[in-house]
Amino acid sequence: MKKNDYDIIFMDLHMPEMDGFQATEKIHVLPKYQINPTPIIAVTASAFEEDKIKAISMGMDDFITKPVVLKNLEELIAKQSQLQN
Predict the structure, then answer these.
(1) Phi/psi of residue 29, each to 5°?
(2) How many CA atoms lie within 13 A of 78 on its CB side?
(3) Looking at the domain assignment, is residue 64 inside a domain?
(4) pLDDT of 56-81, one tens digit each?
(5) Residue 60 falls within a domain, yes or no?
(6) How many whole angstroms separate alpha carbon 72 and alpha carbon 85?
(7) Is 3 domain-assigned?
(8) Fewer CB within 10 A of the end CB, N or C, for the chain?
(9) Per residue in 47-63, is it b (16+ CB within 10 Å) or e — as a string?
């Protein structure tokens, strides 16, 4: 995010060195993000409602579960594109 521009970020919630919640917090404080917020989408195999609520409350813009279904991904991208315009 610091070096490149992205239209959307797909954030895995469970990563080895830093989880998706910590990474999202770090992105949110970047001056670049403050000027032009990039949608951050939580990606996880955990489909519990409380996981979705936590992801949204921690600053992610949407939520998609693994395995990712192409139709759901397309709908999510279209939704985020509309919100950005």
Answers:
(1) -90, -5
(2) 6
(3) yes
(4) 999 999 999 999 999 999 999 999 98
(5) yes
(6) 20
(7) no
(8) C
(9) eeeebbebbeebebbbb
Count of domains observed in the chain: 1
What are the C-alpha distances in Å from 23 to residues 6, 73, 74, 82? 15, 21, 24, 25
The CATH number of the domain where 18 resides is what?
3.40.50.2300
Owning domain of residue 25: 9-84
Query: How far, in Å, CA of 85 to CA of 41, rounded?
Result: 17
Structure tokens at 14: 């469970």
Give pLDDT, residue 47.
80
Residue 1 lies in a domain: no
Helix axes 20-28, 49-57, angle to 10 degrees: 20
